[in-house]
Amino acid sequence: MATPASPPNPVPVAYQNTSPAVPDWLNKGDNAWQMVSATLVGLQSVPGLVILYGSIVKKKWAVNSAFMALYAFAAVILCWVTWAYKMSFGHKLLPFWGKAGPALGQKFLIEQANLTATTHKYKNGTVETANATPLYPMASMVWFQCVFAAITLILLAGSVLGRMNIRAWMMFVPLWLTLSYTVGAFSLWGGGFLFQWGVMDYSGGYVIHLSSGIAGLTAAYWVGPRSTNDRERFPPNNVLLMLAGAGLLWMGWAGFNGGDPYSANIDSSMAVLNTNVCAATSLLVWTWLDVIFFKKPSVIGAVQGMITGLVCITPAAGLVQGWAAIVMGILSGSVPWFTMMIVHKRWTLLQKIDDTLGVFHTHAVAGYLGGILTGFFAEPQLCALFLPDPNSRGVVYGGSGGVQILKQLAGGAFIIGWNVVVTSVVCVAIGFLTPLRMPEEELLIGDDAVHGEEAYALWGDGEKYDSTQHGFVLNDATHPMPSSGATQVV
Q1: DSSP readout, 271-300?
Q2: What angle separates helix 239-258 from helix 266-294, to the nearest 10 degrees?
C-alpha cells in the first residue's frame, strides 16, 4: 500500500471517452479491479469472519461473536468516511498522523485518486517521489482502504470473544480506529515517517495484522478471561461452517494483496500467486506438525496454518519471488505453531491472558515474522515496481539489504509499542464508563442473556421444548401433538 514508484501509463487516445461519467484519465480496467478487490476484502469480513467467528466458538456465544464482527464492520465505515480516512491518507499533522476530515464531498470523491508526495533521503541526496496517481476516482480509494480498516477491528475482536461487554465493544471500535489504526496506516502507507524511512509493508503485515494481534492481546488482558467453564471447554459449534468462513477468508485475500499496486498490473498478479502459494504451504506444514506431534490432523489447526500463511506473505506479497513465498510458508506454518503449541503453554504471562482465538499467534507473530522475512527476500526488480527507493532490496540480494532488516525490526517495534499503550488507554477510559467484561449471569447463559437470541433452535441435548413459548408443535401419527401448555422433552 505504499506509494508506487511512478504513475501507470496514460490511457491510449483510442480508449478515451468524452462522457462526463468517463473522464479521459479514467482507466476502467484498473477501476474495475480496485472495486472488485475492495469487495473481496469486504467479503472476508461480511460474511467470512462473521461465519467463522459464529461457528468456531461455543454454541452459546455464536450470535454474540458474529454480531461483534458485523457491528465493527458497520461502525468503521461511518467513522472512516467522516474523519478516519484523511487521518490515514490525508495531509500530515504529525510525522505519524494525518489531519482528520470528511471524505464525503461529491467533488472529492469523483476526482482522480492521488496520494501526497513524500520526500526520501538516499545516499545520493534528497529525492521527492512522484505522487501516486491511480487512474480511478477517489471513491474507489476510500472504499478500498475502508474495508482494510474494518477487517483489522474484526480480527482484533477474536481475542475478546465470549466475555467482552457488547456496550464496551461499541465504544472501543471508533476509539481504537481513531487513535491506533490511523497512526499505523499513515506512518507506513500515507507518507508518514516509517514510509519515508523505507520500512516495507506491502499490504498490511504491520498495519493490520501486527497491530490487531498486539492490540487484541492487550485488550484481552484488560477485559479479563472467560468463565472457567468456557476456558476449560470451548468446542466449535459447527466445524463445517467454520471451514466455509475460512474459505471466504482465503479466496478474499486475492483482493487483500492483489489490489495494493492500485492497478491491474504485473505486480498484482505476482501478489495473488504468492499469496496462495504461501498459504497452501503453511497449511500443509501446520497439519504435518499436528500429525507428527499429536498423531492427528486438526481441522482447526489447518485453518490456523492457512491464516498464518496468508498473514505472513501479506507484507511481502508483491515484493518476493515464488521460491521465497514457499520458504515463507514453511516458516509461517512452523514458527507460529511453535509459539502457540509450545511457548504459550510454558510462558506464564501468556497463560494468564485469555486470547480466545489465539490472535496473538496467528496475526501478531505471523505478521511480524512476515515483515522481517520481507527484509530478507524482497527482490530488487519487484521492489522497483512498487517502492520509490531505487535501492530497496532484501538482504539475500546484497547491497543495502542488511540495513532493511533493521528497518523492518524497528518499524514493527513502533507498531507494537504504540498499540500496547493506546489500547491500554482506550480500555481503561472505557472502563470508567461501563464494565469491560460481561456480568457473571451473562457469562453463564451467553447469547440468550446478551441478545435475547440463540443461534440454533435445536433441542437435542436434553433441553426441554415448551410449545407455548416456541409456537411449533409436531402433529402427526409418529409425533402426536402434546396437549396445550405441555412440555415435551426431545
Answers
A1: HHHHHHHHHHHHHHHHHHHHHHHHSS--HH
A2: 150
Q: Indicate the DSSP class of residue 23.
A: -
H or E segment to which residue 94 belongs: strand 92-94
Q: Is 488 helix (H, G, I), strand (E, B) or coil?
A: strand
Regarding whether 465 and 336 lie in a shared domain, the answer is: no
Strand partners, 126: 121
Q: In terms of domains, do 177 and 309 share one?
A: yes
Sequence letter at residue 55: S
Cα→Cα distances 465→43, 81, 200, 371, 444, Å: 36, 47, 58, 53, 20
The answer to whether 154 touches 176, Cβ cutoff 8 Å, is: no
Q: Within this chain, do residues 222 and 323 fall inside the same structural domain, yes or no?
A: yes
Residues 6 or more apart from 347 whose CB is under 8 A from it?
A: none
How far apart are the two ends of the chain, measured CA to CA in Å? 55
Q: Note the pTM of the prediction, 2 decimals.
A: 0.87
| 54 C-beta neighbours (distance < 10 Å), count | 28
Would you state the cell numbers that stand for residue 468, as one nine-digit string? 407455548
Same domain? For 331 and 472 the reply is no
pLDDT in tens, 220-270: 999 999 999 999 999 999 999 999 999 999 999 999 999 988 889 889 999
pLDDT one-digit tens code per residue, 299-335: 999 999 999 999 999 999 999 999 999 999 999 999 9
Residue 174: give its domain's CATH number.
1.10.3430.10
Same domain, 127 and 177: yes
Same domain, 283 and 326: yes
Cα 25 to chain centroid, rounded: 32
Determine, yes or no, domain membership for 110: yes
Range of the domain at 477: 459-490
Specify whether the CB–CB gap between 150 and 76 falls below 8 A: yes
Q: Does 26 fall in a domain?
A: no
Same domain, 182 and 306: yes
